[in-house]
Design brief:
This protein is mainly α and 183 residues long. The protein has one domain. The chain contains four helices and no strands. The radius of gyration is 23 Å and the shape is elongated. The two termini are 41 Å apart.
């Protein structure tokens, strides 16, 4: 899908903007203007990450629609005796990755919302309308544990499980093909 290439660039840009913003807000020698600029950059980075999440969700839905159409076409063609069954463009491994991405998307959204709440509530002015509740350093540790750290752990566990599943499947298939070649 043509959407994924520019999406990678957008992720790198959002990450860069977030890093510059975080650096500006945490400098010990920074004046108020630099801190405000950093806070604004963090907000921009979080908006970009939320837009990227929306694009990933749309891409995932498109992949699911395409995958289901290919499976339906494969069933129709396989019933025709004049055609051999077509292999789906979606291999089993790609199907597993699609499941993993779909399962991880809600947890990534929660983590992005947590980061957004942190950026929105940065206390860069004497106003009392800000809360430090979502700050990972000085905020509520239970909120950080659930919305921040736990979401990251779940996403990593999902991706590692999918990767290991595909790796074990390939190892099993390569062992079987080695036995066939030796026979």
């Amino acid at each position: 899908m043509q959407l994924l290439g520019p999406l990678h660039i957008a992720i790198v840009v959002a990450l860069g903007v977030g890093i510059v913003g975080a650096e500006d807000t945490t400098k010990a020698s920074a004046d108020q203007s630099t801190i405000n600029t950093g806070a604004t950059l963090l907000k921009v980075a979080n908006v970009l990450f939320l837009l990227i999440w929306c694009a990933l969700a749309i891409a995932t839905i498109c992949f699911w629609v395409k995958e289901s159409r290919l499976r339906a076409d494969q069933r129709v063609v396989s019933k025709n005796p004049h055609y051999h069954t077509l292999g789906s463009c979606f291999s089993y491994d790609l199907f597993q990755v699609l499941i993993a991405v779909s399962a991880a998307l809600p947890f990534i959204l929660i983590r992005a919302i947590y980061s957004g709440l942190n950026a929105i509530n940065l206390n860069t002015s004497p106003s009392s309308h800000h809360t430090t509740k979502f700050n990972p350093i000085s905020g509520d540790w239970i909120i950080y544990l659930i919305m921040g750290l736990l979401m990251e752990i779940i996403v990593v566990a999902i991706y590692i499980t999918a990767g290991m599943w595909c790796w074990f499947r390939h190892e099993k298939n390569s062992d079987a093909s080695d036995v066939e070649l030796r026979s």
